[in-house]
Amino acid sequence: MQLTSPTQTVQPKSSIHSNQTQLLEEYQKKMDVLTTLTADRPVVIFSKSTCSMTHTVKALICSFGANPAVIDVDKMPSGQQVERALLQLGCRPSVPAVFIGQQFIGGADQVISLNVQNKLVQLLLRARAIFV
Description:
By secondary structure, the chain is α+β, with helices and mostly antiparallel strands. It has 5 helices and 4 strands, in the order αβαβαββαα. Helix 2 links the parallel strand 1 (43-47) and strand 2. This is Glutaredoxin domain-containing protein. Keywords: Cytoplasm, Redox-active center.
């Protein structure tokens, strides 16, 4: 039984480890960018200037009295890096992507679902985005 094709070579373990380390470092850099952008803000919505669902999500969050920061990734110099980081978090499509209390919540479907379950207001209260 042949495990590799005649043209395929097997990488040494040290090379595989090096590749994994590099991937982890790249992932961490992307996450650091998101952490910086969401720090000190109770609610952040990542969007694109052409995203109509962002308006819906923002209106819903604002209806509770919160004032979310909206960041248009297509207008940022590092927007592609931010969008890749959002995709790596599992946000598909990449926008809108909502963070409440520096925690990734998800896209429009997740935010609307939390609202239907009466959990969105609790997250906003805990993040001090709104007050009773």
